[in-house]
Amino acid sequence: MSETQAKIFRGFNAIDLVTIAVFGALYRAGWYLWQIFGFLFPFNVVIATFIATLCAVTAAVIVRKVGVFTLFAIASALVNFFFQGEALPATIIYLFLGVLSDGYLYLRLKGGDDPFSSMREMIIAGTLFSLLWTLTNWLIVFPIIFQMEFALGVHIAVTIACFVGGIIGGWLGYLLGDRLK
Known about the structure:
Blueprint: H1 3-8, H2 14-29, H3 31-36, H4 45-63, H5 68-84, H6 88-94, H7 99-110, H8 119-145, H9 152-180
Helix pairs in contact: 2-4, 2-5, 4-5, 4-8, 4-9, 5-6, 6-8, 7-8, 8-9
């Protein structure tokens, strides 16, 4: 097994899993913050996307292994389901939100790069996370599962705002994770 393959397929130890779970729980604790601004719905979801991406990227920079985004999504979805009462279909969908980012990190590692030490690469991974997060919420969860209808202009404005919030969250998540590691 080459050195690159060894980096890709390193297992998670207990400290890694606890770190990911802590950031998943911190994200879900942020639920109370964006619920304060519930009167701004659907625009309060921008705060949710920002905090989710901030926590996911921070965990990825600290743990530095492929699979962090997926495990973060699983941890936060389980906290949401068991402690905050999320609907089961939405929870099942949320379990897969980290796959795109982990796929990107896998490809970067396979190409010989170390994406966890690059602000650019982690912002891209965070952007992919927020993009999948935003599209999942606005194309599947809200309109289909929760039967919420929004005007096209609201969809476009919220989607763009969530995407930008995710980019900023990824940037700040890299800075925070780099400082904490």
